Amino acid sequence: MYGETVKGGPLARQAAILCRDTRFRLYLDRRRRHKFGLSEQELPDGTHDEQDAREWLCAACGIESRAELDHNYRAAETFHGIRKRFGRWVYQLSAGMLA
Predict the structure, then answer these.
(1) Is 21 helix (H, G, I), strand (E, B) or coil?
(2) Cβ neighbourhood burial of 95 (10 Å; 0-12, 13-18, 19+)
């Protein structure tokens, strides 16, 4: 999608909503702590903001803009996987299965 502007559709809107979700940003905080073996003091809850979430999501999906999700099959598949893992995490959190 180099040099051309793509218009976002439903997936781009879902991604924007996800990045505004404080639970998703908490998920990113805890995911990063686990991945890098950090303590909550080193990376406290609330560290990721909406912009951090957007940047992380774009990097994870291999895109420069969330609008590309509606035009890039691989990025869309990656996004669906992220949403699925996040949904599972939210369920486990609400069921008291996570600390």
Answers:
(1) coil
(2) exposed
Percent of the chain that is helix, strand, coil (3-state, to 5) = 65, 0, 35
**Residue 84: closest CA among 18, 35, 37:** 18
Would you state the pLDDT for residue 7?
Answer: 85
Phi, psi of 8 (to 5 degrees): -75, 150
C-alpha to C-alpha distance for 30 and 33, rounded to whole angstroms: 5
Residue 61 near residue 78 (C-beta atoms within 8 A): yes
Distance in angstroms (rounded) separating the CA atoms of residues 77 and 69: 9
- Residue 40, Cβ density class (10 Å: 0-12 exposed, 13-18 middle, ≥19 buried): exposed
Residue 4 has pLDDT above 90, yes or no: no
Q: Which segments within 9-63 are labelled E, that is strand?
A: none
Residue ranges of domains in the chain? 10-94
